[in-house]
Design brief:
Radius of gyration: 22 Å
Strand order of the largest sheet: 1-4
Number of domains: 1
Order of helices and strands: HHHHHHEEEHHHHEHHHHH
Distance between the termini: 35 Å
Largest sheet: 2 strands, antiparallel
Shape: globular
Length: about 375
């Protein structure tokens, strides 16, 4: 059986552990002078993206399902957590209404909608963070996979799904804040969301979630189930002919991936301080694909690394040349497709392999 933590996974987890310890200490022990508070939240956001990339890599890298709708699962998890944080505000909102969020009071809502019930409890919101994206993935996958929709057709349908959700959540009557979304959060589990200690705690929780997500994904993909998923990716018809219920395997990994993306979205919302319909944008889902392709499809660790690198590049590039970022992102994807088929992780491993390999002259001398 393949080891759960191989060399690349071990190195990444070790680096993540160092980051998890160093960042909070650098922020809290030195009053934000070594690691400013905004850097803590920014790094936490990058780790959320990394978890989202791992979720997509599970279905695309190992099962061949190119989903252009994973941004929807991410956003639904974010909204579930945002609804809880809005209920946590209570009567401290602008309109001081203990039951209704400010946007509902502004829109003259008389009572809290039924689908907001229960979100005042953290445990309930935590369940919804996974169950809502998982239920959507199950319903979508049930019909799509049983209909044997594959390839580019499946990708287009997933993109249509997230675009439809974006249009729906933009509407005020949906009860999710419309264009402005959910924001102005005060507390999370009773702790002030703007305090440095809370920011550091959220960062640590995100790092732990990323580590667990990687280990879960690794456990699945290195098992017998993972071998079948790879067979489906490489030869779906042949796998079906061998007697495997391909639809069931694809549905399982799609739902697990969606739930993982929902967790990433839930951790993203309190650290960024807002969740709005823009997170459903099809462009966001396409960007996730670029993260995975850049880092290394089918490697898990490479997907996480690609997400962090692209997110960092986006932060820097949009600060220097904001109008050219999309062109740079498109050029990056073309570059990876043409010259880095194994992604950045593959390039790094090949470089180290060449350095360790003895020169031909030395090999002949030893012979």
């Amino acid at each position: 059986m393949t080891s759960l933590i191989d060399r690349r996974m071990g190195i990444f987890l070790a680096g993540l552990f160092v980051l998890t310890v160093a960042v909070p200490i650098g922020n809290l022990a030195f009053d934000g002078k070594v690691v400013p508070s905004y850097i803590v939240s920014l790094l936490g956001k990058y780790l959320c993206y990394a978890l989202l990339a791992v979720a997509l890599d599970m279905v695309w890298g190992f099962c061949g399902i190119l989903s252009l709708g994973h941004g929807a699962f991410f956003a639904l998890g974010g909204y579930a957590m945002g609804m809880h944080l809005m209920r946590e505000i209570g009567d401290r909102g602008v309109y001081a209404n203990p039951d209704l969020p400010d946007f509902m009071v502004f829109l003259s809502w008389d009572e809290l909608p039924w689908f907001w019930m229960g979100f005042d409890n953290f445990w309930f919101a935590s369940l919804m963070v996974m169950l809502v994206p998982g239920a959507l993935a199950f319903l979508f996958g049930w019909f799509a996979f049983r209909s044997r929709v594959t390839g580019v057709y499946l990708s287009i349908i997933t993109q249509a799904m997230t675009y439809a959700l974006q249009l729906a959540f933009f509407r005020n009557e949906m009860g999710f804040g419309g264009n402005n979304g959910l924001t102005d959060f005060k507390d999370v589990l009773g702790f002030p969301i703007q305090s440095d200690a809370t920011r550091a705690g959220l960062f640590v929780c995100t790092a732990i979630a990323l580590a667990l997500g990687l280990l879960i994904a690794r456990a699945i993909t290195t098992s017998k189930l993972g071998m079948i998923l790879v067979c489906i990716r490489d030869a779906e018809s042949r796998t079906r002919f061998m007697g495997y219920r391909v639809e069931g395997y694809k549905l399982f990994i799609f739902v697990v991936s969606a739930m993982m993306a929902g967790v990433a979205g839930a951790l993203y919302t309190p650290q960024v301080g807002i969740i709005n319909p823009g997170e459903f944008s099809p462009a966001n889902s396409i960007e996730i694909v670029i993260w995975v392709a850049l880092g290394g499809r089918g490697t898990l660790v490479g997907a996480a690394l690609g997400a962090i690198l692209v997110a960092l590049a986006k932060t820097l590039f949009t600060g220097w040349f904001p109008e050219f970022w999309l062109f740079a992102l498109g050029g990056l994807f073309i570059l990876v497709t043409l010259f880095l088929p194994k992604g950045v992780l593959g390039l790094i491993e090949e470089t180290f392999a060449r350095k360790k390999k003895p020169a031909p002259a030395l090999q002949e001398a030893k012979a």
